């Protein structure tokens, strides 16, 4: 046996395993970290093994930073564009709604105007129909009136009226070759210095009211209400009257039996 066999070896035992790893890292500017590995098993006097590792410094790449900034700006710009587009769409919708309401109101007004025009046309057609029901006198039939013309002012009025037989009827016309009902009556009485109102409504109340049973030559006959008459003529005797009837007849002499008058007034 060796003389040193009983002497304990002075070699330091190697640690069998590492059980703990401590990592401390610094980020800005490349901080040095120390990783300490200590043996948790083995002899108490085992020395720890240490190793120093340098961690890489965290740096920001300039292109990457620029890209990130550009992406953020693009996102912000897109959000602004989206908001602007929504505002424009809202404004367009409001404008379209306003235009639709205006068009609807205009259509309603147009429909009402057309309805009124249609009612007025119907009323005119009814009046023309009533007028057309009057007996149309032939040239020979028109001589049924008194052969002798009354004297004085009445004679002058009747003579003027008969001189206009065959003239045209034109609404609003005042002669000398075309008349409406009231302008013919007004012109006839102007021959004797009587200034009658222009329209039939006023002429129907311009003189002294007389009953149709007592009507005389030269009296004004009217159709409709007194003060609201729509037609006038002049009584020429023998149950007949002379008037500017309508566009299809013109100035004629007609029988009262064909279309009886509503009333009469006397001005002479």
Describe the fold and architecture:
With 268 residues, the chain is α+β, with helices and mostly antiparallel strands. The protein has 3 domains: 20-54, no CATH class; 73-132; 141-266, endopeptidase fold (from Nostoc punctiforme) (Alpha-Beta Complex), CATH 3.90.1720.10. Helix content is 36%, strand content 18%. It has 4 helices and 11 strands, in the order E-E-E-H-H-E-E-H-H-E-E-E-E-E-E. It has a 6-stranded antiparallel β-sheet with strand order 6-11-7-8-9-10. Strands 1-2-3 form a 3-stranded antiparallel β-sheet, with no helix packed on it. It has a two-stranded parallel sheet with strand order 4-5. Strand 7 (220-223) and strand 8 form a beta hairpin. The protein is rod-shaped and about 145 Å long. The model is unreliable at 17-44 and 133-147 (pLDDT under 50).
Which series of helices and strands comes N to C? Answer: EEEHHEEHHEEEEEE
* Major sheet: arrangement of strands: 6-11-7-8-9-10
**What is the fourth-level CATH superfamily of the largest domain?**
endopeptidase domain like (from Nostoc punctiforme)
What proportion of the residues form beta strands (DSSP E)?
15-25%
Total helices: the number is 4
Q: What overall geometry do the principal axes of the alpha carbons give?
A: rod-shaped
CATH class group of the largest domain: Alpha Beta
Give the proportion of residues in helices: 25-40%
CATH architectural name of the largest domain: Alpha-Beta Complex
Structural domain count = 3
What is the residue-mean pLDDT, rounded to a whole number?
77
Largest sheet: number of strands, sense, barrel closure: 6 strands, antiparallel
Number of strand elements:
11
- Contiguous low-pLDDT stretches (5 residues minimum) are 17-44, 133-147
- What would you report as the Rg, rounded to the nearest angstrom? 60 Å
């Amino acid at each position: 046996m060796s003389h040193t066999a009983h002497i304990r070896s002075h070699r330091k035992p190697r640690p069998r395993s590492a059980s703990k790893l401590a990592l401390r890292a610094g980020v800005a500017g490349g901080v040095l970290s120390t990783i300490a590995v200590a043996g948790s098993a083995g002899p108490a006097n085992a020395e720890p093994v240490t190793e120093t590792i340098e961690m890489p410094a965290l740096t920001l790449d300039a292109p990457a930073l620029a890209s990130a900034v550009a992406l953020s700006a693009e996102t912000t710009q897109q959000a602004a564009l989206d908001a602007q587009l929504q505002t424009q769409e809202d404004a367009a919708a409001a404008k379209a709604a306003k235009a639709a309401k205006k068009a609807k109101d205009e259509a309603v007004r147009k429909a009402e105007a057309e309805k009124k025009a249609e009612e007025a046309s119907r009323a005119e057609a009814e009046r023309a129909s009533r007028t057309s029901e009057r007996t149309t006198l032939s040239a020979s039939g028109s001589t049924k009136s008194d052969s002798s013309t009354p004297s004085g002012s009445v004679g002058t009025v009747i003579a003027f009226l008969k001189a206009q037989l065959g003239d045209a009827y034109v609404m609003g016309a005042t002669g000398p070759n075309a008349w409406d009902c009231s302008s013919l009556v007004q012109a006839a009485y102007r021959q004797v210095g009587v200034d009658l109102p222009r329209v039939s409504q006023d002429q129907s109340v311009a003189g002294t009211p007389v009953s149709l049973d007592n009507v005389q030559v030269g009296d004004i006959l009217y159709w409709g209400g007194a003060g609201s008459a729509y037609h006038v003529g002049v009584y020429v005797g023998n149950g007949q009257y002379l008037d500017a009837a309508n566009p299809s007849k013109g100035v004629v002499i007609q029988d009262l039996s064909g279309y009886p008058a509503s009333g009469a007034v006397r001005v002479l």
